[in-house]
């Protein structure tokens, strides 16, 4: 047996990408040995659990010059056995590479001619260098493309261009191939493989519906028994897929949102809420009213005058009326539901309500006055909720004495359709109020997540970099519409600029100013939206924003947008950067979402979100993050904390603090640890301040004066009431921190009694260390009696 002619080599990186390299000098021609080795390498990569995706490349700067022509002579003379019919085009290329359940990318440098291009075309994506030559020159040898080229090239570049390329045997270079759609991106040689690695992260093999149809067809054609075997095989294959893992994670994460440590495990029974009052009949207020009415709650809608009240009731009627038109509600049910709604102009009807939801404009002084009035008119048991999306609840309730009843009930627009309810608690909010609102959320068919009180809470705070990152890219030369296309291709319902139009520029500016005020060191300040607003553009409501809108609200690009972008650049002092003009879609996705992941890490580290999986649900249900990617944190873990940290650090060094990775992400990256499964709920120690030193000394003195009873010592306080307890574990430092929130009664102490002085305390919440108002007491305990 003669020596083998050529081979392939497989290398699997830490990122889970297998790079298969074709090695057959001088042009990496595709001998039968190479093709057999390619199939074996693919089979190996597909079977390995640590391989997530595949990159195919050629050694020494050449992808492949095509099928080994020297084999033709042997085949023609009968000296070499011809491979069985369809072996290469069907078994190797179609059934193995093209049908692979893991995404593959061809990294094309130098040559991709004949069979080389045909191998590249069966990959799920292609990246090329600018000068690479791609073509099907078989007619020069009196042949036609034999590995599927006649079928795939027309589908990629169109019939006319494919005929030209095949009949003239004329290759195209990488730049032209990009314009034709033959390749997905063009990069320099030294960036080729790394870019291919990044590109594969954006690919999704969403073939589950097709597999289902295929199995059904098998039963129709060949009968149930073969179909059952095929069904089992397909099920087992899909069970191991990334899409299935992501969706199963979302399934369990969604069911876990109603379990809040220290709240839902107290045995509290939700009180019955029958009548709900809503202040404000705008889009949000009317949407909230609709959601409540659909679950048979009695609703009072309050407005400031008859005109606004009539408009608010009209919106509710329209919301319910659309259900009648769609056949989702009968006219009789519509009439009965509308009977549950009553419109008022004063607070007199609020004296027997069980819950109030404030949904007026985002104005602090107005909301403060409203809550002061609510305290006067509402009964003592009434839940006082605000639908604010950004304002600190402590500030809203500043003029009241009922801060234990104040809670955030943040719905997402449109409120009667969007499935998420963000329940925002302060350090004062009673656990009973939280349990009550969780119950209401379930009854109106919302998925509730309980979060802490801060600017933007969880969803809006972690997504505030979403539009800001888009503005950063635009000012440096990336096209607005390319950004939105890349983000929607990634799986979002709309990109940052289409979203800004939908929300409205007024809301975008008001919300953005809150984040600029509270997080100035990590916000990107662009004047583009204010400049457009000054010119009477407000988004979809005025039919002009980043897009133009027709009578049916259909969006189309606006050629005048360039003028505003140029003006914003001149104000910012930013010049167009050529590399941003041709930014890859994968880089666009990363530069948009990695700052979002970074802020989500802060939200988790500060205890604003109780569980990282809650962040995934918040992203999916609040912002439309694609569920088949598992949510924001799950998706981030698929890329790896090290990779995300390194990219953010690189951009931070180049462009400043907007991209600076947070301490939590840095710590996870240093350990190579995932974001979802980190030990403890908080990973940073507070600054040592005079306040903390004073608190610690006070606690030490208090401990000497208290008599502990180890058997039942889970809730001790000076006034005999169980205080709100917060605990944070530091397994990496072998210690536990416990602190208590008793702003009215002063010092309170909690004590758990496991062996060796290790405190075991149920977690209720984790408040931000920076806010001194939350810190009444702090106990630091070392492990094992130290």
From TrEMBL:
Residues of the 3-hydroxyacyl-CoA dehydrogenase C-terminal domain: 456-549, 588-682
Name the UniProt record assigns to this protein: 3-hydroxyacyl-CoA dehydrogenase
Reactions it catalyzes: a (3S)-3-hydroxyacyl-CoA = a (2E)-enoyl-CoA + H2O; a (3Z)-enoyl-CoA = a 4-saturated (2E)-enoyl-CoA; a (3E)-enoyl-CoA = a 4-saturated (2E)-enoyl-CoA; (3S)-3-hydroxybutanoyl-CoA = (3R)-3-hydroxybutanoyl-CoA
Source species: Gossypium anomalum
Molecular functions per Gene Ontology: (3S)-3-hydroxyacyl-CoA dehydrogenase (NAD+) activity; 3-hydroxybutyryl-CoA epimerase activity; delta(3)-delta(2)-enoyl-CoA isomerase activity; enoyl-CoA hydratase activity; NAD+ binding
Taxonomic placement: Eukaryota, Viridiplantae, Streptophyta, Embryophyta, Tracheophyta
Domain 3-hydroxyacyl-CoA dehydrogenase NAD binding residues, every copy: 275-453
Gene Ontology biological process terms from the UniProt entry: fatty acid beta-oxidation
Keyword Cell membrane set for record: no
